Amino acid sequence: MKPWIWGAAALIAAVVVPSFLDPAGYPIRVLTLTLLFAALGQAWNIVGGLANQISLGHAAFFGIGAYTSTILLIHFNLSPWIGMLAGAALAALAAYLLSFPTMKLRGHYFALATLAFSEVLRVVASSWTSVTGGPAGLSVPYAADSLALLQFKSTTPYYYIILGALVLICVVFLVIQKSALGYRLRAVKENPDAAEVIGVDTTRVKITAAVISAALTALLGTLYAQFTYFFDPEAVFGIVAISVRAAIIAILGGAGTLAGPLIGAFVIVPLEEFANAALSSRAAGLSQLVFGLMLIAIILVEPRGLLVLVSNGIARLRKGRKG
Amino acid sequence: MNMTGAPLLRIEHLHAGYDGNDVLHDISMEMSEGEFICVIGANTAGKSTLLRTISRLVRNARGRITFDGHDLMATAPYDVPKLGIAHVPEGRHVFPDMTVEENLLLGAYCVRHDPAYKHRLEESFSLFPRLRERRTQRAGTLSGGEQQMVVLGRAMMLGMRLLILDEPSHGLAPIVVDEVHDALVKIHQQGTSILLVEQNTALALSVASRGYVLESGRIVLADTAAALMENPKVREAYLGL
């Protein structure tokens, strides 16, 4: 089957599925979160997968999105749709400024610098109580179901809005991958020195990817805030909750590929929920331990990600049928 | 084109290095259009640094470098290829997950609006027929010699006027070394000026017409290749005779 047929089938399934689910139930919440984190993984994939700049600080942009729209809503009654754009612009600016000190860094050093940046923002959000609500976090005021205010009692509208965001980010990823920028990014990723000597402005290419990725990540921060109605600094600026999860979802699924973060999210988010539901009553921390062990097992079996594992499996099946 | 008779590349009182430690001291040299010259010297003499300073990958430099009247010291590294300078760094830097053809096409990145790149692709393929056979193969799966051909072919895609080469024979089997050097001679015959850095002194002096000897970051000798071959100091220190 051609890849676009897979994509179309997945999209149709995603559109149809909610009609079989209780709009206030648990499964659709998990599905909505899965789509949100698939989108987050895909946004990360633009800089982490295409440019191979492993960011461990994407929570910075996610949090900027959540806080910007919510603060604008609380204080100025500004629609989250506009707040979302403001958050995206702010995140893009932050990524641009951050790239001056970090883009010369490679590998671990880049990862650590981005991680430090998101930690700084988390501390700021925890301390600046008058604006951010401090460690107690912020609640999104609920008035009534309203598309203009991006708030609903039911989960289903969020599901479709977040599905739309996921589709948008996937399209952006594909367009970049197929464009001249995509080729430049591949050149930088595969051999930065060779890219430089053939005349690619490697710094500018990486900054462009980082800015696009940050802006898209901030959109998701706003959607997360509207969906959960409440968040604290740990939830949106958290290393484990957001930064590492975004990276793991993309890497585990297959970094640099369109399908990677989708597969990664659909394995990791339900797995995490399952581990929590099944084990959290047994012993504190047991669910995280089991979740971590499962991740290690997957990485050991196929370091290039689940996508490779799946496509190898399909290839083997086909061969078996022929032979 | 260079109509004035001025040198194509001129380096004057160049000091360069990394983080305040100069590796090159007061380098002055020049080459005319169409020349094939080499820089020889031991490991750590500063040969690679010299090439990397010309292509602006080493930014920490003082002095003057001009290429056909352009001030290279005021040129960004990614603009250097646009002037027609192709730098082939040491270590066969291919794009491993791209095909041979994609690698070559990326060599024309700076001149992508010039349709002549199609013609140059043919030229690269006719100089290296092996690359034509392997055009759809991933570059990372090629042998060392074939990867060196990819890198040379990629440089040709630029329609370069000056090729600067860092240790193209390093780590290659002797028969492949000969092949690479035959290719260099052909590239030179087609009108490209070449600046070659080599540890393999005998080989460098056999293909170049003129050479500079670099020692601890200073030029200690400059002469024709034939004279350097006969120079007792060069024979003892670099040719092992």
Shape of chain B: globular
Low-confidence stretches of chain B: none
Which structural class do you get from the secondary structure elements of chain B? Answer: alpha/beta
Strand order of the largest sheet of chain B: 6-7-8-3-9-10
Overview of the structural elements:
Helices cover 76% and strands 1% of the residues of chain A. Chain A has one domain (17-322). Chain A contains 15 helices and two strands. In chain A, helix 3 (59-76) packs parallel to helix 5 (108-127). Chain A is mainly alpha-helical and 323 residues long. Chain B has two domains: 1-84 and 161-179 and 187-241, Rossmann fold; 89-159, no CATH class. Chain B has 241 residues and is α/β, with parallel strands linked by helices. Chain B has a six-stranded mixed β-sheet with strand order 6-7-8-3-9-10, sandwiched between helices. A four-stranded antiparallel β-sheet of chain B has the order 2-1-4-5, with helices on one face. The longest helix of chain B has 16 residues, at 174-189. In chain B, helix 3 (116-127) packs antiparallel against helix 5 (144-156) and helix 5 (144-156) runs parallel beside helix 6 (174-189). Helix content of chain B is 34%, strand content 26%. The radius of gyration of chain B is 17 Å and the shape is globular. Chain B has helices spanning 47-54, 100-107, 116-127, 129-133, 144-156, 174-189, 201-207, 225-230, 232-237, and strands at 9-18, 21-31, 36-40, 61-67, 70-71, 85-88, 162-166, 193-198, 210-215, 218-224. The mean pLDDT of chain B is 91. Chain B contains nine helices and ten strands. The chains are: A mainly alpha (323), B alpha/beta (241). The A-B interface holds A 183-184, 186-187, 190-191, 193-194, 196-202 and B 55, 57, 76-82, 86-89, 93-98, 106-107, 109-110, 151, 154, 158.
